[in-house]
Amino acid sequence: MSLSRRTALIALSAFCVVASVPALALQGAKFSLPALAEAQKAGKPVLVEITAPWCPTCKAQRPILDKLLTSEKYKSFVTLDMDFDTQKDDLRAVKAQMQSTLIVYKGDKEVGRSAGDTNPASIEALLAKAL
């Protein structure tokens, strides 16, 4: 087998492995209770981010979270996005009452939550609770 063919097969194999990983492994997967349970079972730190497209606080949180979640310290987080307007049953399941709510889990335990916070230091402190 030629080197280029072998390289192509390795690349295809790697793609198949990555493609078979559940969607929750990607930042910003849609929230569902099964996705939350799967991330918790895998032992990943989890951030549930409850947002609404019309929410200015959510928009202010986004660059803060983007910066933190792409940093080396927090890149292991699984982020599950919940839409405040369309996922009312899920809101009740996690006992959330407003958009711009951030909930963090370490294993199967909720270790912190905040609502309406746009302070980078306190958002980072919230994420740190799940490490």
Distance between the termini: 45 Å
Strand order of the largest sheet: 1-3-2-4-5
Largest sheet: 5 strands, mixed
Please state the CA-atom Rg, rounded to the nearest Å: 17 Å
- Gross CATH architecture: 3-Layer(aba) Sandwich
Structural class: alpha/beta
Description:
With 131 residues, the chain is an alpha/beta fold. It has a single domain, classed as Glutaredoxin. The protein has helices at 3-20, 33-41, 56-69, 88-93, 120-128, and strands at residues 29-30, 45-51, 78-83, 101-106, 109-115. Helix 3 (56-69) links the parallel strand 2 (45-51) and strand 3 (78-83). It is globular, with a radius of gyration of 17 Å. The relative contact order is 0.17. Mean pLDDT is 84; it is low at 11-26.
Features:
131 residues, five-stranded mixed beta sheet, alpha/beta, single chain, 5 strands, 5 helices, Glutaredoxin
Structural topology:
Layout: H1 3-20, E1 29-30, H2 33-41, E2 45-51, H3 56-69, E3 78-83, H4 88-93, E4 101-106, E5 109-115, H5 120-128
Provide a brief overview of the structure:
Helices cover 43% and strands 21% of the residues.
